[in-house]
Amino acid sequence: MRIYNSTIMETRAFGPFIEVPAEEVSLTNFKCMHCKEPVEVLRQVIPGLVPRICIPACRCGSVAVWEDERQPTGKLWYWNIKLLKQTGAKLAIFNGDKPLSPGFSGCN
Length: 108
Fold this sequence. Notes:
By secondary structure, the chain is mainly beta. The protein is built from one helix and nine strands. It has a domain at 24-93.
């Protein structure tokens, strides 16, 4: 439990995060084909940066996409998790059509 905005809220681990308010995590309409568990999503506003970032996650890993970009489906989730497993990453951030700096390295 944590206090957010003077309110005591139940928290839980979610994807790459140690504590998020449990009420902000919701289910998607598909399961992961690798771990067979329901995929959950956290939608969070980041003031001044994006309208909302959506982070679907399961035991296998997490993907971050902007709300105005294409969202993962069950079929896309399979390939996203396969990519995460091949690279050893736990979080993939998809940037849509936004330009990246020339020195950006996608695998850290």
